[in-house]
Specification:
The chain has 172 residues and is mainly alpha-helical. It is built from 3 helices and 5 strands. The protein has a domain of 33 residues. The relative contact order is 0.06.
Length: 172
């Protein structure tokens, strides 16, 4: 029993050690940022408030030339370019991105086809309903109470107008 208590208390004392491996800096908006990742290169050293003891910030920018250097000073090493990568990796990556783009295009085409089919169905139904209304037949429908009601002239005109609006929007 006492051993369990000691283990719990000991683990509680070890919890703050994880917070020691935190970076703290002030960003461009003058807000304090806490992270386990180093700050971006754009953040100057003076804005870094705290960094882990064993961490070093890597700077990949080209070193500035010394003011007193002559023409015989060695030129800084060029930064690695994308062409320096192995070509096999690039081909695989290009193939994957090309396939992803093709899949996205196919998905968009299928969605457009689905929308076009729905519009065609709506157009067909609206035209059929308009033809029924224009025929002069008696039309009945069920109201909200579940009762059957016959459309009078005003209701028929309103339904014809609604169906014409659907035809105008869907049948292009």
């Amino acid at each position: 029993m006492k051993l369990a208590h000691l283990l719990v208390i000991g683990s509680l004392f070890l919890l703050p050690l994880g917070a020691q491996a935190q970076w703290q800096w002030i960003d461009k908006d003058n807000k304090k940022v806490f992270s386990d990742q180093p700050p971006p290169i754009e953040i100057p050293e003076k804005n870094i408030l705290r960094k882990p003891n064993s961490a070093k910030r890597l700077n990949f920018s080209a070193p500035a030339a010394a003011e007193g250097s002559g023409a015989d000073a060695p030129a800084p090493a060029p930064a690695p370019t994308a062409a320096a990568k192995p070509s096999g990796v690039d081909k695989d990556l290009e193939e994957k991105t090309r396939k992803a783009e093709e899949a996205e295009k196919a998905k968009q085409a299928a969605e457009a086809q689905k929308v076009a089919q729905a519009k065609a169905d709506n157009c067909k139904r609206a035209r059929e309903g308009k033809a029924t209304m224009d025929s002069g037949m008696r039309v009945a429908r069920v109201n909200a109470q579940g009762e059957r009601e016959i459309l009078d002239d005003d209701m028929r005109a309103a339904e014809q107008k609604r169906l014409q609006g659907v035809i105008d929007s869907e049948c292009k």
